[in-house]
Amino acid sequence: MSAFMALATLVERRTGNSGWIDVVWTLGLGLTGVAGALLPFGAGPMPRRLVVAGLALAWALRLGLHIARRTAGITEDPRYAKLKRDWGNAAPQQLARLLQMQALVSIPLGLGIILAAHSPAPSLSWRDLAGVAVFAAGLAGGAIADGQLRAFARSGAGGVCDHGLWRWSRHPNYFFECLLWCSYPVIALATGYPWGWLALLAPACITLLLTRISGIPPLEEHMLAKHGAAYRAYQHRTSALIPLPPKGATS
After folding, report:
1. 173 is in which domain, residue-wise?
2. pLDDT tens profile 124-136
3. Cα–Cα distance for residue pair 181/116, rounded to 1 Å
């Protein structure tokens, strides 16, 4: 991940578009997870390793391509753009340092994939199927939320998107992302596999990142600056993360 984030640093400097950082991070983490799942160590049977590697690859391709499509239509990611403005002349060095920190905090995510893949239960079981079901729900929900937001942007309606899943949550894509990462501990928490409990760090890590650090806080700040009172009203009636009926809804 350190090498991938060094590549992200070079891509950002060459293009001037910080949006590509998240593309490289997503594809890098997916490939790292696939490699960790398939490496020949531990007692996990090959069918489970292949299943988990497939989950990691599906996540990376779905999210990576979505972010790449979005990035191709912008000049900067507003979150990174603000950091670069705040850092001034020190921005290149500070950004490179930040991206290496991102590589470091990716460890629990990669570890969750690897622990699920190498769970020593001798054959695929209901636990693996349950994990795949959780993953599928998270992947599909995230894709639906992203598609609804794209459709709203193409409609030219302007303002704040509060249709579909976005009526129930201000960040439904983040909710389903957190749900998706719960699939790995579901698979890893097998009887007699104490290391499997560490897989819980994966959903804990992504939830912390999205709700407290790099996801909701800077994005909400950006949306408030862009939409003002309209977004403040949206905040008041709509759950931040978990999809819930909006306040004041009658149906």
Report:
1. 2-237
2. 999 999 999 999 9
3. 11
Domains in the chain, number: 1
Q: Could you give the CA distance from residue 161 to residue 150 in angstroms, rounded to a whole number?
A: 10
Residue 134 lies in a domain: yes
In degrees, rounded to 5, the angle at the alpha carbon of residue 117 between the alpha carbons of residues 114 and 118 is 85
Per the CB < 8 A criterion, the answer to whether 128 and 144 are in contact is no
Contacts of 53 (CB under 8 A, 6+ apart): 33, 34, 37, 38, 117
- Give just the sign of the alpha carbon dihedral 67, 140, 26, 160: positive
In a domain, 221, yes or no: yes
| Six token digits for residue 56 | 């990691």
End-to-end CA distance of the chain: 46
Residue 243 domain-assigned (yes or no):
no
Identify the DSSP state of 245.
P
- Which pLDDT score, from 0 to 100, does residue 251 have? 46
Which residue ranges of the chain lie beneath pLDDT 50? 250-251
CA distances from 191 to 108, 121, 188, 195, 196 (A): 21, 8, 9, 11, 9
Residue 249, pLDDT score: 61
Q: Assign 239 to helix, strand or coil.
A: strand
